[in-house]
Amino acid sequence: MSDQSFRPASMLLATVGLSLATFMQVLDTTIANVALPTISGNLGVSAEQGTWVITSFAVCNAIGLPLTGWLARRFGEVKLFLAAVVLFVLTSFLCGIAQSMPELVVFRAMQGLVAGPMYPMAQTLLLAIFPAAKRGMALALLAMVTVVAPIVGPITGGWITDSYSWPWIFFINVPIGIFATFIVWSQLGGRPEQTVKAPIDYVGLTLLVLGVGLLQVVLDKGNDLDWFESQFIIGATAVSVIALIALVIWELTDRHPIINLRLFQYRNFTFGTLALVLGYSAFFGINLLLPQWLQTQLGYTAVWAGLAAAPIGILPVFLSPLVGRFAHKTDMRLLAGGAFLVMGVSCFVRATFNTEVDYRHIADVQIFMGLGIALFFMPVTTILLSSLPPKDIAEGSGLATFLRVLGGSFASSLTTWLWHRREIFHHAQLAEHVSPYDPAAQLYIEQLGGASQSTFAQIDRVVESQAYMLSTVDYFTLLGWVFMGLILIIWLAKPPFTAKAGQDSGGGH
Length: 509
Fold this sequence. Notes:
By secondary structure, the protein is mostly helical. It contains 21 helices and no strands. Helix 3 (52-64) packs antiparallel against helix 19 (393-432). The longest helix has 40 residues, at 393-432. It is globular and about 80 Å long. The two termini are 16 Å apart. The model is unreliable at 503-509 (pLDDT under 50).
């Protein structure tokens, strides 16, 4: 796509600029979550209406990601990245000055759409400017951003909302974005790029917006609306499924598809993307359920729940550079398999928790899982990009990131649904054993002061707490086996695993 010999004046500055912009964008996917009650209260809407601040961003981000490949070919990689960052800064400012919920939702939707190309383009440009031997370092750096930003997001969002006011969670992007734009432009502005004026696939684009947009709404709203008890969810799901099936058929037959599904003919891209999506979804599920369980069942505050989950980011910060530096000397499947083994074991350890578990024990398991996270993103990304022709790197990165984000949405909805379903199941089972004829139950009732309405209410709270505990154990056991299964999937990829650069002129391998 462009000259492969180009190197920025300062590799360090170029890397800082690209990483800073990506960190800002990934951070923004979680930073607003904690502030939702405050935002809803200030703008005079219900908490349920407030969730559209998250949904609108997620829907438009999911639509923007697959467009990355086409936009990169049409306008050039550097121009696309810079335009995305500038527009992200502008929409962040608009979010901060929004005076009503409809305004904020519209600006968040615009922010999600323009954020789409930022991560794939940062990945593509880092691979392009680093020499072959150091491309692992570039991917490891982005992996670190991907892990740390979602953890920092809720803690930062809570602190900013408590100490200042909610608009500052958006205003904070303005100076960071301007600084990152200036650095990237000064370092990569002179990079020669070839553009291709391919016609836009309007049919594919329409089906993408319809199918993915409605799917994301269904996933975000399913739990609130009790899934298929809701006519809206049934209708939206039907339209989404039809649109997505039509999209796949159309994209496989169109000469200039908006999403290049033919990339799945490459073995490593297929199995690497499958491992990335399932591995990230499971990781996302842990990050979602653990703080929720700590707050609702163990009485943790939002900040302490965040601090209990945060140690997962400690080891990736220190180990990611080492993994990036030495990974190319090792079989990537060994590193990725090791990552899945560590993450699986951490889930099985969590499945031994009970309601008496202390903060230290929870934090220790999070630190241990951080070892798996440090070994996960970089090797898996290297594997999935390794067999793609250089001209398809941007498109492959965009498609893999799109599926990863969508996987996170599925995980979010399924985690909450599964957790509550299993709680109902365990609650019913446990309640069967609480009867006046059971000797143990009789003794417990007497210890609480005899049979009365308040005693039975207290027993019900204990039963509910234990039911949620058993549901949590079920969920972590399931995730443990998912990670073990991923070890087998990643070994279906075939070496060599060398990350190519999007600007190399060679043909496909």
